[in-house]
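Anyone up for a design puzzle?
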């Protein structure tokens, strides 16, 4: 099912290039609402330019932030005030997983780059008792509901870009240099695998081509 013609997609891409905004940062405040007011240690997997890690540092004693891209990690370090308890490192989220336990683990727009089952198993293993895992991920559209949300997101995406840029074209910020790829798992596949590994996990489709997962370690 095609929502837009190739010509319309190209027009949308040009509009987004002129009026960029961060689809992932849109969910940062929502992520914070899933977390305790204070906690000891947090891990942000796929930390990018560090926006979420810096928000977590307002509640955590320490934050470990890992990303496989050295360019964006260097930018994150430059943007982070020296007093914040955040440590950025370039690492593979599976092979070099920072040993926990952590009271909070977050992962935004990254897990589709990782072996899904192995990543969830690592998160579960390194999450402290009573800890919270929050994932904002991407899935492959398959069902009519997926396509409907995608259709709704198109005008909403343009409106958000216009509002966030106050109607003025804006240059894009420094972007990641690591390879990216599209999601290959559907939302229903994600739900089935996640609940096998994380019983009781709460998953929900979201706007702007995202889904969320929240799980609390018993």
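Challenge accepted. My sequence:
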């Amino acid at each position: 099912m095609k929502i837009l013609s190739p010509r319309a997609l190209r027009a949308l891409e040009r509009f987004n290039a002129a009026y960029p905004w961060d689809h992932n940062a849109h969910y940062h405040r929502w992520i914070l609402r899933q977390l305790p007011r204070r906690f000891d240690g947090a891990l942000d997997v796929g930390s990018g330019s560090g926006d979420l890690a810096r928000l977590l540092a307002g509640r955590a004693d320490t934050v470990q932030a890992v990303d496989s891209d050295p360019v964006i990690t260097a930018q994150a370090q430059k943007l982070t005030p020296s007093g914040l308890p955040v440590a950025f490192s370039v690492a593979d989220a599976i092979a070099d997983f920072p040993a926990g336990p952590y009271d909070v683990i977050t992962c935004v727009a990254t897990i589709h780059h990782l072996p899904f089952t192995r990543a969830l198993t690592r998160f579960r293993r390194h999450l402290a008792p009573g800890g919270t895992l929050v994932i904002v991920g991407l899935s492959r559209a398959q069902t009519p509901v997926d396509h409907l949300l995608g259709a709704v997101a198109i005008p909403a995406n343009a409106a958000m870009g216009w509002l966030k840029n106050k109607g003025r074209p804006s240059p894009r910020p420094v972007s990641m240099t690591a390879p990216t790829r599209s999601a290959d798992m559907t939302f229903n596949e994600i739900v089935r695998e996640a609940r096998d590994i994380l019983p009781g996990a709460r998953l929900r489709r979201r706007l702007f081509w995202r889904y969320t997962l929240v799980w609390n370690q018993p």
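A detail worth pointing out: Residues 173-179 have pLDDT under 50 and may be disordered.
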